[in-house]
Specification:
The complex is a heterodimer of chains A (about 200) and B (about 500). Chain A is mostly helical and about 200 residues long. Chain A has seven helices and four strands. Among the domains of chain A are: about 70 residues, Orthogonal Bundle (3-methyladenine DNA Glycosylase II, Chain A, domain 3); about 60 residues, Alpha-Beta Plaits (2-Layer Sandwich). The longest helix of chain A has about 30 residues. The radius of gyration of chain A is 29 Å and the shape is elongated. Classes of the chains: A mainly alpha (about 200), B alpha/beta (about 500).
Chain lengths: ~200, ~500
């Protein structure tokens, strides 16, 4: 009888000790290896085009990423286009949706251009630019830093004299595109003969 | 006499192919100078070294060696003959892009005015040598046109001279080694002395006995104290690819995503080193050896041509009528590209013009034979990658190793279905780079957006603090006034 009690008792005590030790370890790990912020939000934000244009109805890409993580629809990003929607869908493991916008607009890569002769120096566009890509001062001409402009067109509406245009992003002088293999599949250099033996 | 050894390479290339080399076609005739053409063309943005800026205007007189273009990387391109700048206009180029781009057109005249740099005297340091390489426009003359000075770091232990020249038909490097051995050896020695490199490896395929003999002869005469390790490679394509050559000669595998420079090895083309030797004497690159070959040319040979010479002029130099040809391939049959406008001028990277009859072969579906995987020198699965690319699944192709593809086109050569695999990979790699660039731009935008938000928050807080301070101050003043009134009453 006593033997039985000792056997059962040592088992119970042993398992309890292991349980507490494991619990303590988990407690420690949850403090020591705590991840700040939601890693899912970061991953979604990584896929968004970072134009900060607000066309999704959120003030920037990060807020939209947070909204998606909380269940908002994934097809609200026109600058990202269908590609971005598909990527987010595959990240979240959900069904992809058609883009909720004019798809033609997504393919264009635009930047803002201030027509400098017409600029009155009101600084309104500078305040609107989400990435500080416009330089200038009150009553002095403003200009766009083309390399930093995301093409969000948030500066267009505030301009009182309508002197900002959206133009195609200028390419580097040595930019070129290799011909698509579909075009050249019938136009090749001819057979390479091999050595025999 | 410089110390050297000749050894047979004991490693073997994974994959690779044995194409018919056709090299004897262009080595039968001796190498000749071509007459100065009536026009010289220099593309401003596509001469190698990045987008450039013209340093001369229409009507300016230039001498042989006058700087005419400065590129973003600093590299200077010079006029290859004395003459007058006739025009700066959009023109066809010797480049895989069929588009036209701004070119400087020079009309050479009979004068032999020279505008060279001053000769450098030993000893000089790496900084001075780099400076000289920039001013003399030294680029990788093997075909890639990478600015040479960017490879030179102080952590380098070995210099490899890439004399493999594994592409079929090409004999430009072979010719250069035969006729300009001393310059090549001198360039290699001076570079090694400046960068404190102990060993110089020469990787050469065993189908160039004359070149090997020339190297041996030059080394016997050389007074250099560098050690030369000459490695005889099996004739197999693509043993002259930089990564493959580093592995064959030294047994070092350069990891994915890094360059051989990071492994302490620099690889240079023989022509680049010969050009460097002349640059030290003050002469910038004005000429290069071009192989003119192919069954459609009457008299194939190697020529020394001024940079900027129109392709039609070179075709005429082989007693062939340019109008009888529909197109020529620039570079070899494996990695070259086709060009149809013969008025384009050659650049520093134009090593070969190949003219031959083309059979048009229709593409058929992949039969999954796996021949491409057997010959891939990087041990990739080309059939998987091309299937992914055709299905517009770029990320899948990248997962299969698209980033490691060296675009050698060995897979093209063995494909029984004539699928243009290498063209798909070239296009895929281009898209991959574009995506990486967009991703980097997005990261910059994110940083700027976040920095702006932090700034706006800070400003709002500061304003809030100021307002609170003002409020406290006015409350204080009110209290004082109230107290004063109470005292009076």
């Amino acid at each position: 009888m006593i033997d039985l009690l000792v056997t059962v008792g040592s088992g119970v005590i042993g398992l309890t000790v292991i349980g507490f030790a494991g619990g303590a370890l988990l407690q420690y790990a949850s403090k020591a290896f705590k991840v700040d912020g939601n890693p899912l939000v970061e991953s979604i934000d990584e896929l968004l085009p970072q134009t900060q244009c607000g066309q999704c109805g959120h003030p920037g890409c990060k807020p939209y990423a947070e909204a998606i993580a909380h269940g908002e629809s994934i097809n609200r990003c026109p600058p990202g286009g269908q590609t971005t929607v598909d990527r987010i869908a595959s990240l979240l493991g959900v069904e992809s949706l058609p883009l909720d916008a004019d798809t033609a607009a997504a393919d264009q890569d635009l930047v803002a251009l201030i027509i400098e002769e017409e600029c009155i120096g009101c600084t309104k566009c500078i305040q609107a630019c989400p990435v500080d890509a416009i330089v200038g001062a009150a009553k002095l001409m403003h200009t766009v830093i083309v390399d930093d402009c995301t093409g969000c067109d948030l500066c267009i509406d505030p301009c009182p004299v309508d002197c900002i245009d959206m133009v195609e992003r200028p390419k580097a002088a040595d930019y070129w595109t290799p011909i698509h293999p579909k075009v050249i599949s019938t136009d090749r250099f001819g057979q390479i003969e091999m050595q025999h033996g | 006499m410089a110390e050297y050894q000749i050894r047979r390479c004991d490693r073997h290339l994974t994959g690779g192919i044995h194409p018919e080399t056709h090299k004897q076609l262009s080595t039968a005739e001796p190498c000749e100078f071509v007459d100065t053409p009536t026009r010289l063309l220099f593309p401003i943005h596509f001469s190698g070294g990045g987008p450039g800026k013209a340093l001369v205007g229409v009507g300016d007189p230039v001498a042989k060696g006058t700087p005419i273009i400065r590129c973003q990387s600093g590299i200077v391109h010079v006029a290859s003959r004395a003459g007058t700048v006739l025009d700066v206009t959009d023109h066809a180029m010797t480049h895989p892009s069929p588009e036209q781009s701004a070119c400087i057109v020079i009309e050479p005249n009979a004068s032999d005015l020279q505008d060279y740099l001053s000769p450098m005297n030993w000893p000089f340091d790496a900084k001075a040598l780099r400076e000289r390489a920039i001013e003399a426009g030294i680029l990788g003359l093997g075909g890639a046109g990478f600015p040479s000075f960017k490879k030179w770091s102080n952590r380098t232990q070995t210099l490899i001279i890439n004399a493999a020249e594994c592409e079929p038909y090409l004999t430009a490097d072979d010719t250069l080694i035969r006729i300009d051995t001393h310059s090549m050896i001198r360039g290699a020695c001076l570079l090694s002395r400046t960068l404190d490199i102990q060993t110089i490896v020469i990787g050469i395929e065993d189908n160039k006995p004359e070149a090997l003999q020339a190297i041996e002869g030059a080394l016997k005469e050389s007074r250099s104290d560098c050690f030369f390790d000459i490695v005889l490679l099996d004739t197999k394509y693509p043993s002259g690819s930089a990564r493959q050559l580093v592995w064959l000669t030294l047994g070092i595998e350069v990891p994915t995503g890094s360059r051989s420079v990071e492994a302490g090895v620099i690889v240079h083309n023989p022509g680049t080193l010969a050009a460097l030797s002349r640059a030290i004497d003050g002469k910038p690159i004005t000429d290069r050896i071009v192989t003119l070959t192919g069954e459609s040319l009457t008299r194939p040979k190697n020529v020394i041509a001024p940079i900027g010479t129109p392709i039609s002029h070179l075709i005429e130099a082989t007693d062939t009528n340019p109008q009888s040809l529909h197109s020529v391939i620039v570079g070899g049959p494996m990695m070259g590209y086709r060009i149809t406008d013969f008025s384009a001028g050659i650049t520093k990277t134009t090593n070969c013009l190949l003219a031959r009859e083309v059979e048009i072969q229709p593409e058929s579906p992949c039969i999954r034979c796996g021949a491409c995987a057997t010959v891939c020198p990087v041990r990739l699965q080309p059939q998987q990658m091309v299937a992914a690319l055709k299905g517009e699944a770029l990320s899948r192709a990248i997962h299969e190793g698209l980033g490691d593809c060296i675009e050698c086109a060995a897979c093209n050569a063995v494909c029984p279905s004539n699928i243009p695999l290498a063209e798909w990979f070239r296009r895929g790699r281009f898209e991959m780079k574009e995506n990486a660039r967009e991703h980097q731009q997005a990261s910059i935008a994110r940083e700027r957006f976040e920095a702006r938000n932090t700034r706006l928050e800070r400003l709002a807080k500061e304003q809030e603090a100021k307002r609170a301070a003002r409020k406290a101050k006015s409350a204080d003043a009110l209290n004082k006034a109230r107290k004063a009134r109470e005292e009076i009453s």
